[in-house]
Structure formats: C-alpha cells, structure tokens
Amino acid sequence: MKTCSLTQAGRAAAFACALSCLSFAAAPARAALGDTAAVPAGAAQRVVGGGAGRVVSYVDDDGTTINEYVGIATGTVIAYTWQGPAQPNVETLLGRYAVDWRNAAAALHAAGRDGLHAARVEGAQVVVETAGHMRAYMGRAWLPAALPAGVSVGDLQ
C-alpha cells in the first residue's frame, strides 16, 4: 500500500477544490427566488396569468427542464418548476429562502411527517414541493406572497 504525506494530501485536496470551483465558474449565472431575473440567450418564453407573469424555460447540464416564473411588474423570480432525470440544486434556486425551507423541512422530519418520494414543505416565506424517483424528478418552489394577481399556484407547472 502506498502512503502519502499530509503535504501531498493537502495539495490533492486543494487541486480538487480548485477544479470544482472552475466547473462552477463555467456554469451560467441564474437568478434565485426573489432576485431580478436574467433571461438566458435562446431561452423559450411564454406568458401566464393573463400577462401578469412570464415563464423562461431552459434545460440544465443534467438534462432537467427548469421553468423560471417572473412577475412582469417587478421583474423578479417568483417561482421555479422542474422536471427531469436529476434533481436541480434546490438551495441554489431558493437563494436567500433556503434557510426558511431547511428549517421547515427539519420541523416536518422531527414530527415524522416527511415522505420518501414526495414532500411539501411550507416555510414562513416559501413553499417547496418535490416528488420522484431515480431519473424522474419533479418539483416546484414559489413565494406565495410574491405571486401577482392573475397568477395562481395552478399556473406553476
């Protein structure tokens, strides 16, 4: 068995960290819930809620289709939906609302009310629904207080 010194192990860890940082830097920036939306080039768009919102659709690197819902009046992201072979990084999509989601999910787990294949987590400011199994994931996350008049939860598909 070959051994390595702590210096060699530290260098290897630093290299792996630098490599992973480069891969994140290469990914296009996306807005999180509540942030000002940035429409990626070539993204498909459609209108919802009688013109109160628009949906920008794109496919991420894992092949998952992500729909970003934007309030027309505010220009901010009010919701996300996703469907595909991999779960997106929900914490990234939630941005500053991730802490609210984690706290509500921990409370559900402590109460024994969390599910294996599907969950609905209602935080103080954000609602997140996830479902699926290997290679078939779907979900949605939204800010109930930010939904403009004319856009309902049913529009978030």
From TrEMBL:
Keywords: Signal
InterPro entries the record matches: DUF2844 (IPR021267)
Signal peptide: 1-31
Protein name: DUF2844 domain-containing protein
